[in-house]
Amino acid sequence: MRAAAWRHDRPWSWCARCGSAACAGCQGGLAGAGREEDGPATVVRLGAHDGALRRWVIDVKHARWEAMGERLGALIGEQLLACGVVSRSDPRASLVPVPMPWLRAHARGIDHSAVLAAAASRATGACVVGALGQRLVGTQVDRAGRDSRVAPGEARARFIPRPRARRVLAGMHAVLVDDVRTTGATLAESARALRFLGAARVDAAVVSVAE
């Protein structure tokens, strides 16, 4: 990271609602919560999905660069603390990795969101809760250099609760953890699933945001 002369963004130097550096639809959202029914209340990020950060995200996922995933996850944890989204060792905070279909995780040999969440957990003291599973639906096809996501209309019923998830998350503060926010459809659908399970508040933390 030093060799690449990269530094993560300053806390809340982006739109808290969508995670973009500047968003015409969310003006006034900087350092403020969004409308929870539309997705996560806030989105915490490390930076824009370009340059060195984009290369690292791709290599974590496609080249199984777990060590970099752990480093980025630790930075996510530090950013969550710096932004005040979680406090250290908060017993009500849970980190929920956005799941991959198990066939895809098996084929890649790494579950990148789980790696990120585990490292963020070590940095914050918040527990990791694997609350959701994901079905492989539609035509979710990876494209080199891009985070693959289906269109918003196809996202229905992708995420399913895992056993005992409702009991663990009821009344809790859940923070979704993923590598990239693209359209926001995946985070929105995941957030709705967590609220259905009883989470009192849902935020999100990502490595990068496509702008």
Question: Which labels suit this protein?
Answer:
two-stranded antiparallel ribbon; 211 residues; 7 strands; alpha/beta; 5-stranded parallel sheet; Rossmann fold; single chain; 6 helices; 18% strand
Number of domains: 1
The top-level CATH class is Alpha Beta
CATH architecture assignment name: 3-Layer(aba) Sandwich
Largest sheet: 5 strands, parallel
Alpha-carbon Rg, integer: 16 Å
Shape: globular
C-alpha termini separation: 22 Å
**What percentage of amino acids are in beta strands?**
15-25%
**Number of helical stretches of at least 4 residues:** 6
Oligomerization category of the chains in this entry: single chain
Low-confidence stretches: 139-155
Q: Could you please say which CATH topology applies here? A: Rossmann fold
**Order of helices and strands, N to C?**
EHHEHHEEEHEHE
Number of strands: 7
The overall average pLDDT, rounded, is 86
| Class based on secondary structure composition and strand pairing | alpha/beta
Spatial order of the strands in the main sheet?
1-7-6-2-3
Helix content: 25-40%
